[in-house]
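Chapter summary example.
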Amino acid sequence: MVLRVYYHVGMPPWTDRVSRLVLGAILTACSVGVVHAEPAASSCDTDNRCQALRNFFLKYQSPLEKLAIVFVRAADQHKLDWRLLPAISMVETSGGKHGTPSNVFGWNSGRTRFRSVESGILFVASRFAESPIYAGRTAMGILRMYNPARKTYPPKVIYFMRELAADPVR
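The structure predicted for these 170 residues follows.
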């Protein structure tokens, strides 16, 4: 074993690699972002969509009820149909009741483990808005790309979207 002693002010040779890894991890964490959910009752009082989403999740006994405001804000921030992400979560994990606990969308075939459900919501919303695969597409276009192998997938998601609000799904 070789023991190196550094008598000068310089850094050990491995610190450059470590610095890059740490910086990469920090930048990745910043790009995903984290939203700390406010108490659902006080946050949803002024937004009818949020109230509808809370009631929807309560009807299905979903643990996502407390995160209704996170879904709505993520959709608004990324200009997505506010019903899309909750509906996908219902098809993929029965509204967060099954599958990987922090991955309510089955993202990456359910293999991705987000730091929290909130960070998963924000990550998927940002991918739908910014990824070349999904960016600029309507909710229907996103659904066709999200699970292209299953032709029955979009109608399942649309069913839940229409349950939230009867507006047409574009």
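To summarize the output: Residues 46 and 102 are 27 Å apart (CA to CA).
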